[in-house]
Amino acid sequence: xxxxxxxxxxxxxxxxxxxxxxxxxxxxxxxxxxxxxxxxxxxxxxxxxxxxxxxxxxxxxxxxxxxxxxxxxxxxxxxxxxxxxxxxxxxxxxxxxxxxxxxxxxxxxxxxxxxxxxxxxxxxxxxxxxxxxxxxxxxxxxxxxxxxxxxxxxxxxxxxxxxxxxxxxxxxxxxxxxxxxxxxxxxxxxxxxxxxxxxxxxxxxxxxxxxxxxxxxxxxxxxxxxxxxxxxxxxxxxxxxxxxxxxxxxx
Length: 251
Prior knowledge:
This protein is mainly α. The protein contains eleven helices and no strands. The longest helix has 37 residues, at 194-230. The chain starts with a helix and ends with a helix.
């Protein structure tokens, strides 16, 4: 097997040209997943009658449906939903980005919900009682005491979810959204050289993920002083970052 390294290098520009679309889709999907996951977490953790059971069932369903299937279902169901709601759109040019973001966001909402519930459970319950005894409202206690501690615990997991969603956007080409993977597919088809193109696409995705992993690792280091106050001195800290494993950076 021989590889054309010159051609492989020529793939970089057309693939990276679609990086803004990939990042835009990732950020919107993460935001949607976080919002929906927060709603699920509030209902489940608050044990709201009916809504808690419904949220649990929805989380189980969304976890069990493959992302590609979810993408197709949303892509073909969303036009009817928009029509029913009276939201106008061009049938010849449907908002495909909206469909993809909705599918990816819903697919990852249950995992964001689990992340938030787990982070909340790490905060000692006595802290909320102490805040109430000091005259804090529930909202003030959550905003000033509970949520900052949840952020410290949730940051590593959130970083993993962000990177996974970034990689997941490569499926958007299946609904004709030309992002990085779509650009690689089109470029490879035009030149009939697939192996070099896909190897380069894999390397570019890997490098982008390492950069974000590095950013989240640095964020964890900055939050480490707060984590050290929450964990016992002899508690092990799990290193999950690719950058951490490569460099040995302490979290």
